[in-house]
Amino acid sequence: MPAALELARTAYEEHRWTVARDAFDVAQNEGQLPARDLELAATAALLLGLETDGVETLTRAHEEYLAANDIVGAVRCAAWLGIHLMNAGNRARGGGWLARAQRLVHGDAESEVAEGFLLIPVGLGSLYSGDVDGALRAFDQLATFAERFADRDIYCLAQLGRGQSRIMAGQVEDGMTLLDEAMVAVTAGEISPLPAGIIYCAVIGTCHLAYDLKRAHEWTAALDQWCAAQPDMIPFSAQCQAHRAALYRLHGAWSEAYSAALIAEERFGLGDRDAAYGAFYQKGEIERLRGEFDDAEASYRRAGETGFEPQPGLALLALARGHRDVALALIRGAVEGSDPGTRRRMLPALVTIELAAGHVELARAAADELRVVSSDSRMPMLNASASHANAAVLLEEGDALGALGEARRASALWRDLDLPFELAQCRALIARAHRMLEDEISAEVELQAARAMFAELGATPSVRELDALRRQRGDSPLTTREVEVLRLVASGLTNKAIAAELYLSEKTVARHLSNIFAKLDLTSRAAATAYAYRQRLV
Questions:
Q1: How far is the C-alpha of 409 from the C-alpha of 426, rounded, in Å?
Q2: Segment 76-83 long-range contacts (CB within 8 Å, at least 24 positions apart)
Q3: How far apart (Å, rounded) are the C-alpha atoms in residues 508 and 57?
Q4: In whole angstroms, how far apart are CA 60 and each of 79, 88, 165, 425, 466?
Q5: Coil, strand or helix at 2
Q6: Inter-CA distances, 422 with 278, 312, 391, Å
Q7: Which of 393, 407, 518, 531 has the least C-beta neighbours within 10 A?
Q8: How crowded is residue 133: how many other Cβ atoms within 10 Å of its Cβ?
Q9: CB 344 within 8 A of CB 356
């Protein structure tokens, strides 16, 4: 065996991609490479971000397999070319390669194993279009093919697709078990580099979608080590940084999160296209939370250019700017018709925005839906989100004691998860509940604690909101919602009319009115109306 070819194969096995590619080039100059070596050389080029070189070399490998009458090898190369080109946005060329692979399969009676490769794009197409049943069928068939022909790469990709499909269908625990099985093979080094990277990044993204922060931590650390062992690899390295940015942001290390997002953006520019959404979305999230609204909008727009909606971040940005109608349209559009996993991720923001718009009944429906999906979940982050959302709605419904209990449950979970921004938001909710219960001492303690946490994070808009809330203490004993009800009472509206105006139930309006009478020591609607005029509320 020529020395260059031996070096190339050894370097490939050791994941030294630059050395492998250069050695394959030397070996190619010394004589025609076999199809398998051309396929390896193409993989090395693609992992270095050399797309044109990788595609051309994989095309030559396909042709060599055909010349050797190796239909399985030819179909494998054609299928990967199709998947890669379609993922890069070149749908015409990608579709052409997949059509060629399909023709080869149908033209060869002994190429049953090759049919498995064509189920990958079929399953992905169903998954991304929201056809969960179709995706499950395709990936179940793919797993059967892989088991029959002992193909570890295809089997693990099938397990990935099966897991994602089940999670989208709401079968979260079963889906995560399938993803764990795929990851065991990846971390054990049992599969090829390209499928390994695909599975790493897809699993971590799915963990975030499913609120499984523990798994997201574990697999992000594994991906980090995998990428660090291959410093010249471009694909997947940027996605690793985007996943790191998400975790840093959640844990309050916003400077580190922003740095990781910038690295992801840089490496995206070098060829890791799949990192674009994560890089720009995480930048947008940090900029929004810091109050850098123009920068956040630009980052969200860049994320949206990838074809994925930058939600709920863009909707929450509109709310932060005071554009409630825009925020409502964005978040409702994102929730409507979405798969269960995406819908679950949007529900907390939907609750927040509906409440800000005064639609308490609609916020109650969203909070109840979140509570149902979390009821049998062992994922603390989902449980915390559900309790937090329910507390916010209970507070607007006038049930301060109920809100206090739910907020305390949520804050304990946020603390255990080490998510400081969410914990600070929850403590602000607790403060509002104490104030509604006329416990100003406890309210002030919670407000000071929440403000300190927001200030340490650099969450400038949240600090301003709390300062405004603290200034309200001496103005009126009434909550914002109670002031709204009082104004409408003073305008002569009945409880039924007020309920329709504020999207509340008549029972909730009656509770607010009872609280108003008690706080102001009043006994009639006429006296409440007189108070409203004295305080210039109408």
A1: 10
A2: 76/39, 76/114, 76/117, 77/39, 77/42, 78/104, 79/117, 79/118, 79/120, 79/121, 80/117, 80/194, 81/55, 82/121, 83/120, 83/121, 83/124
A3: 69
A4: 14, 20, 35, 57, 64
A5: coil
A6: 21, 15, 13
A7: 518
A8: 10
A9: no
Q: Token pair for residue 511?
A: 């509770």
- Nearest residue to 57 via CA among 24, 90, 82, 88: 24
Q: Which amino acid is at 216?
A: A
R_g (Cα) of the chain, nearest Å: 28
Report the chain's terminal Cα–Cα distance, integer Å. Answer: 92
CA dihedral 415, 416, 419, 425 (to 10 degrees): -30
Q: Which residues contact 505 (CB under 8 A, 6 or more apart)?
A: 361, 499
Q: What is the pLDDT along the chain (538 residues), one digit of tens a residue?
A: 689 999 999 999 999 999 999 999 999 998 889 999 999 999 999 999 999 999 999 999 999 999 999 988 998 899 889 988 887 778 899 889 988 988 888 765 555 666 777 788 888 888 878 788 999 999 999 998 888 878 899 899 999 999 999 988 888 889 999 999 999 999 999 999 999 999 999 999 999 888 899 999 999 999 999 999 999 999 899 899 999 999 999 999 999 999 999 999 998 888 777 789 999 999 999 999 999 999 999 999 999 998 889 999 999 999 999 999 999 999 999 999 788 888 999 999 999 999 999 999 999 999 999 999 998 888 999 999 999 999 999 999 999 999 999 999 999 999 999 999 999 999 999 999 998 998 988 998 999 999 999 999 999 999 998 887 776 554 567 777 888 899 999 999 999 999 888 877 888 889 889 989 988 888 899 999 988 888 777 7
Residue length, the chain?
538
Structure tokens at 113: 């194993």
CA distance 93 to 122: 17
For tokens 């340490």, the residue is 456
List, in order, residues 6 or more apart from 206 with CB less than 8 Å away.
163, 164, 167, 175, 179, 341
Q: Domains along the chain?
A: 377-474 (1.25.40.10), 480-534 (1.10.10.10)
**Which tokens hold the place of 449?**
């604690």
